[in-house]
Design goal:
It is built from 13 helices and 14 strands. With 409 residues, the protein is α/β, with parallel strands linked by helices. 34% of the residues lie in helices and 18% in strands.
């Protein structure tokens, strides 16, 4: 199996629209949560979200191309452009049939669907936009990225709800390991802060009804009452180690383990004993060939919902035993909310930056301990060397995904 490294990363988020600004915001504990102003929330119990504001797709593509993409695709192309640029890949010198794409979206062009459905009801089928289908379907993020950069290798769209970003990177990792591609552009993207998106999760009672941005997304806090809808994209360039070394690339970290399992339990709730999530972590640790005690840090799924945070805590204890209490655990969602299909990718990027900068960010807003969630959730940021870091994602349908990354030396 070939070794796989990270050589580039790109971010579109509510707290930064490039990697440097995102990471500075993370280190500062900046919260990107604010009142929803993109539609009227008068009849909604949910008032807050974590939107990407002021994004200009024309900075990454011509206006005509931008018009033919839903926001989730625009975000993906932008984050991919940043990641490829940081990687230093000269695409004119590369065999583009050996560079693939693995970028997923949990929901796709929901806003486009809503607008066209309204047209259908009010004006009839003849008024539906010709580009409805190519703009709304989830695979178009990967497709548009491949087209934008001429990438002709394997091109896939993994959809596993809130585990999408992590599974997308994990499957890209596998593709390079077995020699299908030398390079993969991988990650997740989402833009579903729309009337239907918020109403749907609200009806499921999954969203926080807090009107205080500092007390809305509070993972592992006893007063948590739901997640906050976020959006954005996280994309990384994964590369076969020898390929990266041959072009003298700046290697950021090495991916050494990937686990993917299913609870087969419930469509929205994780397994109550954390068994499925625990197996995903165990698979990643076993693949890396390390002991659980060598893991220094976990970027948790940490949604700020009662069941997820409690069951993920149980899963961590199941894998790490007493050592679980010595781990630093945090949740990036405390700042950017839950970006659904993009969440795992944004958290993977955070994990890599944690390793390169020896800085573990705080779970911002964590104040009230919960006896059912009794680990070290990093209430204050810590400067600490991290050699091995692990990131979890759990998705509706029982999907569990874990990625394990090590410092490259």
């Amino acid at each position: 199996m070939k070794r796989v490294v990270v050589t580039g990363m790109g971010v579109i988020s509510s707290i930064g629209q490039d990697l440097p600004s995102f990471w500075e915001s993370v280190k500062a504990g900046k919260i990107g949560i604010k009142p929803i102003d993109s539609f009227d929330t008068t009849e909604y119990k949910v008032k807050l979200a974590a939107p990407v504001e002021g994004f200009d797709p024309k900075a990454y593509m011509d206006p005509k191309t931008a018009k033919r993409m839903a926001p989730f695709c625009q975000f993906a192309v932008a984050a991919s452009s940043q990641a490829i640029s940081q990687s230093g890949l000269d695409l004119e010198q590369e065999d583009l049939t050996r560079i693939g794409v693995s970028i997923g979206s949990g929901i796709g062009g929901l806003g486009i669907m809503e607008k066209e459905e309204e047209k259908l009801l009010n004006k009839g089928p003849k008024r539906i936009a010709p580009m409805l289908v190519p703009t709304m379907i989830t695979n178009m993020a990967a497709g548009n990225v491949a087209i934008a950069f001429g990438l002709k290798g394997k091109c896939i769209n993994v959809v596993t709800a809130c585990a999408t970003g992590t599974n997308s990177i994990g499957e890209a990792f596998r593709s390079i390991q077995v020699g299908e591609c030398d390079v993969m552009v991988a990650g997740g993207t989402e833009s579903s802060i729309t009337p239907l998106g918020v109403a749907g999760f609200q009806s499921l009672t999954a969203l926080s009804t807090s009107e205080d941005p500092t007390r809305a997304s509070i993972p592992f806090d006893k007063e948590r009452n739901g997640f906050v809808m976020g959006e954005g994209a996280g994309v990384v360039v994964l590369e076969e180690l020898e390929h990266a070394k041959a072009r003298n690339a700046n290697i950021l970290a090495e991916v050494v383990g990937y686990g993917s399992t299913c609870d087969a339990f419930h469509i929205t709730s994780p397994a109550e004993d954390g068994e499925g999530a625990a197996r995903a972590m165990e698979f990643a640790i076993k693949e890396a060939g390390i002991a659980p005690e060598e893991v220094d840090y976990i970027n948790a799924h940490g949604t700020s919902t009662h069941h997820n945070d409690m069951f993920e805590t149980l899963a961590i204890k199941k894998v790490f035993g007493d050592y679980a209490y010595k781990l630093n655990v945090n949740s990036t969602k405390s700042m950017i909310g839950h970006a659904l299909g993009a969440a795992g990718a944004l958290e993977f990027i955070t994990m890599v930056k944690t390793i390169t900068d020896s800085f573990i960010h705080a779970t911002v807003g964590y104040q009230v301990p919960d006896e059912e969630c009794d680990l070290n959730y990093t209430p204050k940021a810590v400067e600490k060397e991290v050699n091995y870091a692990l990131s979890n994602s759990l998705g509706f349908g029982g999907h569990n995904a874990t990625l394990l990354v090590k410092k490259y030396v």
